[in-house]
Design goal:
Helix 1 runs antiparallel to helix 2, helix 1 crosses helix 3 and helix 2 packs antiparallel against helix 3. This protein is mainly α. The longest helix is centred in the C-terminal third of the chain and has 39 residues. The protein is built from five helices and no strands. It is globular, with a radius of gyration of 21 Å. Helix content is 74%, strand content 0%. It has a domain of 90 residues.
């Protein structure tokens, strides 16, 4: 039976999980955790960076990367939430309208993701990230156009 712990040859893979072959692999995982933690702590969704980093650079299978993201999110979110509460940045009344439906959707999506091929999950995640990027760019352009128009109308008056 192969061990899950470090050996002279490196770490042995678990079933469809992370394969840690050498120290460079460990360093890449630590970097992924740091960047994911920074983004997660700022409330920007560390998984947006963590999942692609794990799948592309660390060669972690898609389903495993998503599971790692979810597990790492729990302590990250807890710490960030405590800090945001202390700074009075959380609207407690409004948050329940988000928590309840998002938890229900998460349960359904978790069951759906289990049955979806990893290639399709990668494609869907990539399309989501691209759509999000395009949306952000469009919003920024619209904002700049509005500011430019306001500036011109203020000059004319």
């Amino acid at each position: 039976m192969k061990s899950k712990f470090p050996s002279a040859e490196g770490w042995q893979p678990q079933a469809d999980g992370v394969v840690i072959e050498n120290m460079w692999q460990i360093i890449k995982l630590i970097i992924a955790g740091l960047f994911g933690g920074v983004l997660g702590g700022m409330g920007m969704g560390g998984g947006t960076l963590l999942i692609p980093f794990l799948t592309v650079f660390c060669k972690v299978p898609q389903h495993s990367a998503q599971a790692i993201n979810l597990i790492s999110f729990i302590p990250m979110a807890g710490i960030a939430l405590i800090i945001h509460f202390k700074k009075k940045l959380v609207d407690v009344k409004g948050v329940l309208w988000i928590i309840i439906p998002s938890c229900a959707a998460a349960v359904g999506a978790a069951f759906l993701a289990r049955g979806v091929d990893a290639t399709i999950l990668k494609k869907l995640f990539g399309e989501f990230i691209i759509a999000l990027g395009v949306y952000q760019i469009v919003c920024e352009i619209v904002l700049k156009v509005r500011k430019h128009k306001e500036k011109h109308t203020n000059r004319l008056q």
